[in-house]
Amino acid sequence: MGIEVVVEGLTKSFGKQNIWQDVTLTLPAGEVSVMLGPSGTGKTVFLKSLIGLLKPEHGRVLINGVDMVNGSEKDIYETRKLFGLMFQDGALFGSMNLFDNVAFPLREHSRKKESEIRRIVMERMEMVGLVGAEGKLPGEISGGMRKRAGLARALVLDPQIVLCDEPDSGLDPVRTAYLSQLLIDLNAQIDATMLIVTHNLDIAATVPDNMGMLFLRNLVTFGPREVLLTSSEPVIAQFLGGRREGPIGMSEEKDAATLAMEQTNSRGLRPDGPRTVVPQLEPSPGMPVRQGALRRRERVLGMLGQLPDAARTAITQSYSAPAGGVRP
Ligand SMILES: Nc1ncnc2c1ncn2[C@@H]1O[C@H](COP(=O)(O)OP(=O)(O)OP(=O)(O)O)[C@@H](O)[C@H]1O
Predict the structure, then answer these.
(1) How far does the centroid of ligand 1 lie from the alpha carbon of residue 11, in Å?
(2) Mutate which of 39, 44, 196, 250 for ligand 1 pocket (most atoms within 8 A of beta carbon)
(3) Structural class in CATH, domain 5-223
(4) What are the boundaries of each domain within the chain?
(5) Prediction pTM value
């Protein structure tokens, strides 16, 4: 089962540039979470801080009792082995075929025999639908295949926490839909805690159990998917609606005058009614039941009283619907 990741009061700056401050959230064990945010709000910096590659100046990241910010280098190094990382471009070695790329972490970090390495690599290649392509070089395959190879490589060391940085970037909508299903199927199979950074609204709407958003150096919110999907918070509604109107501008924040003019001009034209919450993806037929989804159901039903009305209604409806949601 995946491991809970507890983030407490995390603040990161580069020199005088503060990236975000006082970020506090918990990635529940074995659940899938998504972090949204306009470009440049520090989502990648956040992922790197979770694995201890970047050092925030304040706060803690607790994983199995190890603080990835202030812990000893030895503890951080050991804990990092629990992670599987999938970078935006797959980050494959161009001169190695897919088999060797996927086998790389096993050859570097384990003492397994080649026969065992072969078994694991082929199993992961099958998980991501790449059997038959193992002899190809990264330059000979499509972007979508490269991403899936990156995902296979992220999985070879049996990670308990999987971080995916914009797994959809450069993919067409159909490939993105397949990738969304693949992420849910993987979660069903390995029960790892997953955090996906994305701008993709379809992934945000259909994949995660939980969602958060970074904006203007703060975590706007983090919680069950229904909280964000029904939120009337202007920045969240604008982002999830993919609209120009709202506080997010081309270079992150609009000035007050532009915002006021926009609100006057658009008054009455674009009512912000409650948005519909589409059902979350379920594992494909034949896949195991997602244990994270079962745990999430208990967790979220236990916190209903603390949630806004719209989210509470959406959660109650999704768990009482005969199809979709998690079957009891
Ligand atoms: N090592 C570094 N040194 C200095 N500044 C950095 C470093 N890494 C990132 N930054 C800065 O931190 C900010 C956030 O970058 P980051 O890549 O995390 O954004 P992001 O939200 O992932 O963006 P995008 O969605 O466009 O990928 C940027 O202004 C970037 O220039």
Answers:
(1) 14
(2) 44
(3) alpha beta
(4) 5-223
(5) 0.88
